[in-house]
Design brief:
single chain, mainly alpha, 8 helices
Length: 153
């Protein structure tokens, strides 16, 4: 299963994250793989990890946070260059920590609209996807009400 986390096809990486979320299993190698997926440039994969973090147990999320803050999961450049490696390592670390901060604030009960303005570096798709999942029950309820009103006519 861990091989999916490093697959070149983004759907496989996302499937790995979603499988881990549904299985509820967590250990250090999985945490490192999830940290790598948090840094993924494919936004669907990144959103999946953020959603995993929102739903993970407090213990799992703390262990995962420790790994991300330590720089786990960063991609190793194919042609390391000492002049640019430090820059990209810092960039990836900031991106990982930004993801953790978004999840921490959502877990603390803050709404997506409140958080969105404070993270201008994050793509709006990430916030829209998280908000979509968080508001699905409200939208389903409104849809059922609309269908009921139409049937009552």
């Amino acid at each position: 299963m861990l091989r999916l986390a490093d697959d070149s096809i983004s759907h496989c990486r996302r499937a790995f994250v979603e499988f881990m979320a549904s299985a509820g299993y967590y250990d250090e190698p999985i945490g490192i793989a999830l940290a790598g997926c948090l840094l993924d440039l494919e936004l669907y994969v990144r959103v999946s990890v953020l959603r995993w973090g929102i739903g993970a147990s407090a213990e799992q999320f703390e262990l995962f946070s420790t790994l991300v803050e330590a720089g786990a999961g960063r991609r190793v450049p194919r042609f390391p260059n000492p002049l640019s490696s430090e820059y990209w390592n810092e960039s990836q670390l900031r991106r990982g920590i930004r993801g953790l901060n978004i999840v921490r604030r959502i877990r603390a009960g803050e709404g997506v609209p409140q958080i969105r303005g404070e993270f201008p570096e994050e793509d709006n798709f990430v916030f829209d996807s998280i908000n979509f999942v968080r508001t699905i029950s409200e939208r389903e309820s409104a849809w059922r009400d609309m269908k009921r009103r139409r049937a009552d006519r």
